[in-house]
Design a protein that fits this description.
Elements (H helix, E strand, L loop, with lengths): L2 H23 L5 H19 L4 H8 L3 E2 L2 H6 L1 H9 L8 E5 L7 E4 L3 E5 H8 L5 H17 L5 H7 L1 H16 L4 H8 L1 H15 L2 H41 L3 H11 L3 H11 L15
Parallel strand pairs: 2-4
Antiparallel strand pairs: 1-2, 3-4
Length: 289
């Protein structure tokens, strides 16, 4: 499956669900409010898809902020290394999200890289060397350069209704998790969905058939969506790893990954990063850290 097809498949359920929710509830609003919501949503979606309001989207949708002067000085060695590899400013612009504590970064849109507050704290405390910090940020910048996150701001905006419903559902699931039959019903959801589908078909009425098909589809998506999302996350990770390796930062990223986990997936990433040496790879010795 190609990367484009995989991304469409991974995001299609959320996009379709959000569209249906909007179409269902928008008519319940006052006419002017519904019209503004519809037209404004389309305009915002178009602008985000074209990268016209990316800075606003980073602040509003991803809760990012610009680096302070102190943070810029702190990350200066890592940013210098990124710039020499063509992955730093002005090709990409760095943002910070304070609420994320693990060491991480991720790309959004056409030129934005969001750095977790945990990464900055680790550099400040001397727990993360500059080369490894640069490699972690380079991975996110690589996904931006590869174009795999180009429409993520638009998708984040369009799927807000589904995210809200999912958050409510997750909260309700946690609330009822103490009930033994609730967990059993979730594990047996395939049977429940199959019974609903068969009953709808046997009943024969259009409404019952539609309800049965809808129930079966929801159950099928509950199995399929997590797998598609995991496959897309793997594709994004691999795209970032390729760009990191091309930039000559594979070894620092591998060193950081060795600190995080020894899982088979992580070890496979480490092997990809250090298992093969490109013919001409920039040397880290060209930068004094």
């Amino acid at each position: 499956m190609s990367r484009s097809v995989l991304k469409v498949a991974a995001f299609a359920p959320a996009v379709v669900a959000s569209t249906l929710l909007t179409v269902t509830f928008a008519p319940l609003l006052p006419p002017l409010a519904g019209w503004v919501l519809f037209v404004g949503g389309l305009v915002a979606m178009t602008a985000l898809s074209c990268g016209l309001v990316e800075d606003f989207a980073i602040r509003a949708l991803f809760r990012g902020r610009r680096l302070t002067t102190a943070e810029e000085r702190l990350l200066a060695p890592a940013v210098t290394l990124l710039c020499q590899r063509g992955l730093g400013p002005p090709v990409t612009r760095l943002w910070v999200r304070d609420s994320v504590h693990p060491i991480s970064s991720w790309g959004v849109g056409r030129r934005s890289v969001i750095v977790a507050g945990g990464l900055i704290a680790a550099v400040r405390d001397g727990q993360l060397p500059s080369a490894q910090a640069a490699a972690v940020i380079a991975h996110a910048a690589g996904t931006v350069r590869a174009g795999v996150v180009r429409c993520d701001a638009a998708l984040e905006f369009w799927t807000l209704p589904w995210q809200l419903v999912r958050a409510v559902g997750v909260g309700a699931a946690r609330w009822f998790a103490w009930i033994p039959l609730a967990g059993l019903a979730w594990r047996l959801r395939f049977t429940v969905g199959g019974i609903a589908l068969v009953q709808g078909l046997i009943d024969g009425r259009p409404a019952s058939i539609a309800a049965g098909i809808g129930a079966g589809l929801v159950v099928a998506l509950s199995y399929l969506t997590p797998r598609l999302a995991a496959s897309w996350a793997t594709a994004v990770s691999q795209a970032g790893d390729r760009e990191v390796d091309r930039a000559g930062l594979g070894e620092p990223l591998a060193a950081y990954l060795r600190r995080c986990s020894r899982s088979p997936e992580t070890m496979e990433r480490i092997h990809r990063l250090v298992g093969a040496e490109p013919a001409e790879r920039p040397s880290l010795a060209t930068v004094s850290l």
